């Protein structure tokens, strides 16, 4: 009986670890998304400004 209880404890702990991993991964992906979209917006603004200078 004790080993069954211990085994279920381990699986619960494993579920928590995967949940924590998933939360960490989603946070990192969100940070990457915000960073890359901000960088892309900045680059496109610079390119637009550069094209306006060339056109003049």
TrEMBL record:
Basic and acidic residues bias spans: 7-20
Annotated stretches, region: Disordered: 1-20
Tree of life domain: Bacteria
Membrane-spanning ranges: 31-55
Keywords: Membrane, Transmembrane, Transmembrane helix
Record's protein name: Uncharacterized protein
Organism whose genome encodes this protein: Nostoc sphaeroides CCNUC1
């Amino acid at each position: 009986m004790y080993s069954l209880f211990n085994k279920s404890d381990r699986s619960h702990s494993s579920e928590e670890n995967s949940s924590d991993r998933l939360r960490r991964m989603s946070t990192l992906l969100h940070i990457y998304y915000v960073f890359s979209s901000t960088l892309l917006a900045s680059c496109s603004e610079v390119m637009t400004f550069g094209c306006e200078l060339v056109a003049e």
